[in-house]
Description:
Distance between the termini: 11 Å
Strand content: 15-25%
Radius of gyration: 20 Å
Number of strands: 10
CATH topology of the largest domain: Rossmann fold
Number of helices: 11
CATH superfamily of the largest domain: Vaccinia Virus protein VP39
CATH class of the largest domain: Alpha Beta
Mean pLDDT: 86
Oligomer: single chain
Amino acid sequence: MIKILELFGGIGAPRKALINLGIEHKAIDYVEIDEKAVRTYNALYDHAHQPQSVRGYNLMPYILVHGSPCQDFSRAGKRLGGNDEDKTRSSLMWETLKIVENLGPWKPKYVVWENVKGVLDKDMIHSFSKYLMKMEKLGYTNSYEVLNAMDFGIPQKRLRVFVVSILGNRTFNFNNLEGKPMRDLSEFIESAVDEKYTIKTPSMLNRIGDSDRKSSYGGRLTPIENYTWTITTKQNRCPNSGIVPIGNNKYRLLTEKECWLLQGFDEEDYENALKEHPTRKGMTNGILYQQAGNSIVVDVLEAIFKELLFPRKEQIFKGQMTLEEII
């Protein structure tokens, strides 16, 4: 039985990944301050959690996953940083370290942290390096890599930094992650879509076209071909995650459902979330867009969990070792 704690838990991507893998687990708790995200989590996983802050929290998990707020690291944000004395949203990652430190001998064996690629930029990497150093002092061996959702079957160019910290001397080898061929985008795109998603605003129409996408924030609306750009918390803006050609030189936004699917959730998950947060007639659903954009891609977490929990999986299959003996 794997005990997991989700901090800044959002809509529960870590929990969804364990479910998809068929790994027996117990979510010993989930910490999220956004009341609407908590309601969605409860709807997806049949729980009754209440909104709570990560500050001052205390528990004993086996795996701790935290995707602390990224806005102040993001290249699209104000670059306020995440120093522990700054009190920015991104500085909440230090609260995770306080939790681990306060657990004493009951430290989680694995800590997984996900954040935007911007944490590695020269004006932000000091906070990233400080995080690694503090984890080392707590007895962890850190490994990190920039992973792209496209390499794990999802047709979304989403680059995120993942840090895997293992208590003791074991090093996590990202090269062993099991990748997947990128699925066809047609599996994620709806065929019949409401007119409300069609782009009609002149300020957006004037920005449609190819652009230099060295930065995903190039100020243009780029038609989608084989994959989308990073799913963000809003689509009715410029730039966004890409726009869908619908013929006659017209384009539409990605729907909320498409954004959820492109984050690795399934249709049932989306429908459960929609029941909790119904869409107003003639409007798009900002809550469901935001929750999708803030999530971690489920398929990437699946690959990480498989390597963490089954590093010698062939010995399990041969009956030489049990999961409990390996972990």
